[in-house]
Design goal:
6 helices, single chain, globular, alpha+beta, 25% strand, seven-stranded mixed sheet
């Protein structure tokens, strides 16, 4: 899978080099992953998209391989205005994916992100502000303490919905350039060390 992730970065880099920056979306990133997996011998019948989460109140998995590998994708676009609110919401959505993956029984759980420089910088600063570890290079870790959700700003916390406090860790197995100012980041998410609990009465 590691080779496939690096190949996805190369494919996205080719899109940027070909002048298609304005046409790229999260779906393009997911389809690049699908095409690369086929290159690596994984036939389409082994792949599923938009797989409902059993027992979950919301959400679907972006991509599942052999019912054994769960992958979530994020490609936040740089907003033209209201950057602050958009960034905190994006933070919450990205953490939500990680918490959700950590609760799954799949043997491998991956969060694959395409991040622009400005957002990557915000995320690193947010980690310092809210006291958790955020990776900025391959081999570094995302570490989310159990009490993190209560420390997050309201916009980020709202994105977590019914997901709640758990100790979660994820290693950045890929952190490489996909274009000038754009990074392909892939996190391998470990199983949560405690069972998530609801954040509050409104999320029951």
């Amino acid at each position: 899978m590691l080779n496939a992730l690096h190949r996805v970065a190369e494919v996205m880099s080719q899109h940027y080099a070909g002048g298609r920056r304005h046409l790229l979306t999260e779906d393009v990133l997911r389809f690049a992953m699908i095409a690369v997996l086929e290159e690596h011998g994984i036939s389409p019948d082994r792949l599923s998209i938009e797989v409902p989460l059993l027992g979950a109140t919301r959400g679907k998995l972006d991509l599942v391989v052999d019912r054994d590998i769960a992958i979530e994708f994020k490609f936040p676009r740089d907003p033209a205005s209201e950057v602050g609110a958009a960034d905190t919401m994006t933070l919450g959505e990205m953490l939500s994916d990680v918490y959700r993956l950590a609760a799954l029984p799949h043997s491998q759980r991956l969060a694959v992100w395409l991040l622009h420089d400005r957002l990557a910088g915000y995320l690193a600063r947010a980690a310092d502000r809210y006291s958790f570890e955020w990776p900025t290079a391959a081999g570094e870790w995302l570490r989310l303490p159990a009490e993190l959700p209560v420390r997050l700003p309201a916009t980020a916390k709202a994105a977590l919905k019914s997901l709640g406090a758990a100790v979660v860790e994820a290693e950045a197995v890929v952190y490489r350039s996909a274009s000038d100012g754009v990074w392909l980041v892939a996190l391998e998410v470990a199983r949560a060390s405690t069972r998530p609990v609801p954040l509050g009465r409104g999320d029951q």
